[in-house]
Amino acid sequence: MTDSTTPRVLVLSGEPPPGLEPLDGRAELRIVTEDRLAAELPAADALLVWDFATDALPAAWPREGGPRWVHTASAGVDRLMFPALVESDTVLTNARGVFEQPIAEYVAGQVLALAKDFAGTYERQRRRVWEHRVTERVGGTRAVVVGGGPIGRATARTLGALGLRVALVGRTARADDPEVGRVHAFAELDALLPEADWVVSAAPLTDQTRDMFDARAFALMKRGARFLNVGRGPLVVEDDLLAALRARQLAGAALDVFREEPLTDGSPLWDAPGLLVSPHMSADTTTWLDDLAAVFVDNFGRWRAGRPLRNVVDKKLGYVPYAATAEAEGALR
């Protein structure tokens, strides 16, 4: 966008987000809640989906007019993959760059917590029980990280720094990836699972990946392996995971995302043997809201100047392709 008019930017949020002060005087910011979205969208030039857990956008999307650019303050974009937006000329961007390292650190922390039985240590401390026991080494064990984008790559690098031998699985195989060496294709996953001590789900939610971790996948894993999901809840068939944990096919698991959130009080996942539950917080750090705003502010400047935007989602694929991002990042610096 390069015209001289002040653009109208809708911000879907219950309250004004922090960090948007640099847009004062550069944009007409309008904070809207879900009940006002349909009325405001036709006249909007851009939309910031700050409330990224909303499901209101498909019903509110206008038949005519509407924003030329939509940005979501999230890495996942599956909630925005409705036909009217996908088939439109509207450019969609996400918050790639904010979540990668925090999620990788969360995965590393959970791997260490499971291997070192921190939960057992804390429980014995609570009961004032002094009980010496041995735990496991993580160095030299094998991890399969499913998801070849920045989150999966950051996770692979971080686990590698702990001494794990990591295989990264993505949509497209690469024999000499400049960052991680080799990337395996999804078709190779079945052959990798039986050798893995740790399986990390960090993939986007697409038709190809939905329900990919089911009874069949868990049965392929070696007995005593552990499973972690930091991708999207619907990647996992939770009843099948429960069965694998109860049968001791898996020695443990850690879930940060779920098919339905928040997890209900009656969910059997709370009491599943060896399962660590966290409330969708693996990426959320003390600065994450400011970091999310900074990504949008930077892209707003590019949009106004008619320059290439960062983190453009391929709406046919349902995510930002890694190769395109790496090429764009080099050109944009």
Automatic annotation (TrEMBL):
Pfam families: 2-Hacid_dh (PF00389), 2-Hacid_dh_C (PF02826). Keywords: NAD, Oxidoreductase. InterPro entries: D-isomer_2_OHA_DH_cat_dom (IPR006139), D-isomer_DH_CS (IPR029753), D-isomer_DH_NAD-bd (IPR006140), NAD(P)-bd_dom_sf (IPR036291). Residues 33-313 form the D-isomer specific 2-hydroxyacid dehydrogenase catalytic domain. It comes from the Bacteria. Residues 109-282 form the D-isomer specific 2-hydroxyacid dehydrogenase NAD-binding domain. PROSITE patterns: D_2_HYDROXYACID_DH_3 (PS00671). Belongs to the D-isomer specific 2-hydroxyacid dehydrogenase family. This is D-2-hydroxyacid dehydrogenase. It comes from Streptomyces solicavernae.
